[in-house]
Design a protein that fits this description.
This protein has helices at residues 2-26, 39-64, 70-94, 99-118, 121-128, 130-135. By secondary structure, it is mostly helical. The radius of gyration is 17 Å and the shape is elongated. The chain contains six helices and no strands.
Length: 137
């Protein structure tokens, strides 16, 4: 489980950095269905892309720690889940978005509980014995 946690935290970090930088670079063109959303949405999207890249860097920071800090994983997963809640609110208020956004919502609802469950995997393995952490990597 410790290895799974390490892989997921790294993947989350790199994916968020890449997605964030893509939004900074492409603006509205990075959002399926939002190509003609205008300058205000483009500005917001590029700004939030930078914030998302920073969020990804926080995941990468956590992934580089030995052991990966459970509290950081829980906070970062909570933020990810909050994003899903925002998408659900948008669905309720504005209606169904592009299918890609629906797929992202599913990922954002499914992945945080997995991360909450795995959050202390390395810390538990370390408490059980240093060899357990090394064997699980």
């Amino acid at each position: 489980m410790a290895k799974t946690l390490r892989v997921l935290t790294s993947l989350m970090g790199w994916a968020c950095v890449a997605i964030g930088l893509l939004h900074v670079a492409l603006g509205n063109a990075a959002i399926p269905g939002a190509g003609d959303a205008g300058a205000t949405v483009d500005s917001l999207g590029r700004f939030l892309g930078a914030a998302f890249a920073g969020y990804g860097l926080a995941w990468l920071w956590a992934a580089r720690q030995r052991p990966i800090p459970a509290q950081a994983v829980r906070w970062l997963a909570g933020v990810f889940l909050l994003g899903a809640v925002g998408r659900l609110l948008s669905l309720a208020v504005q209606g169904r978005p592009h299918d890609f956004q629906v797929a992202l919502t599913v990922v954002e609802l499914v992945l945080p509980p997995v991360l909450f469950w795995l959050a202390d995997a390395e810390e538990r393995a370390l408490r059980a014995g240093v060899g357990a952490v090394a064997a699980d990597r």
